[in-house]
Specification:
Layout (H helix, E strand, L loop, with lengths): L10 H13 L3 H16 L4 E4 L2 E4 L5 H20 L4 H18 L1 H5 L1 H15 L57
Antiparallel strand pairs: 1-2
Length: 182
């Protein structure tokens, strides 16, 4: 009996799955845009306490700040889960970041503005990677000659495998030691 449970998967499995998921979409653009929306939405409603003095950062455009912040968070999630519209989401996040400067206390004290601008720019510039193309094995110009007579006769159509072993016409794996099962 094994000590490892067959029903659960290890940390490495989930880390590699997340890595593959992250590589197929503009992950960092979505994360920065999402994080840029948080201070833009939060700062107008925050209270700063200095000793016994409480300063309220609320402005008349608090609702506009909340809408801009929520839209930026939504655009960040859109970049993750619908990466086909990444260019639209990037342009929209840049425009919302620019609008947040006058509306939301200088764009969430400039932090949210910068995060949303960088995230939008990354989203526009991201492009999916090309899948790896298989490299075809090139046939040598000349078939290598056997070292000695003891190597046996070589089938004229087969030649030597990559490891230097010769396949004969009667061997089980006549394809240079490789099988074609999958």
């Amino acid at each position: 009996m094994s000590t490892e449970s067959t029903g659960s998967r290890g940390f490495t499995y989930w880390r590699l799955r997340f890595r593959a998921w992250r590589g197929a979409r503009p992950f960092w653009a979505g994360l920065l845009t999402l994080l840029g929306g948080v201070p833009i939405a939060y700062v107008p409603y925050a209270d700063v306490t200095l000793g016994h003095l409480t300063l309220t950062m609320a402005t008349t455009a608090g609702a506009g700040s909340l809408i801009i912040g929520v839209l930026l968070i939504t655009l960040g999630l859109t970049m993750w889960f619908h990466h086909i519209v990444r260019v639209f989401a990037g342009i929209a996040s840049i425009l919302l970041a620019l609008v947040s400067l006058p509306v939301s206390n200088f764009g969430g004290l400039v932090v949210g503005f910068l995060l949303a601008m960088i995230g939008g720019a990354l989203s526009i510039s991201w492009a999916p990677g090309e899948p790896a193309k298989p490299v075809p094995a090139e046939a040598p110009d000349e078939w290598p000659a056997p070292d000695s007579e003891a190597a046996g006769s070589v089938h004229p159509d087969l030649g030597a495998g990559r490891d230097g072993s010769y396949a004969t016409g009667t061997s089980v794996d006549a394809n240079g030691g490789r099988n074609s099962a999958g």
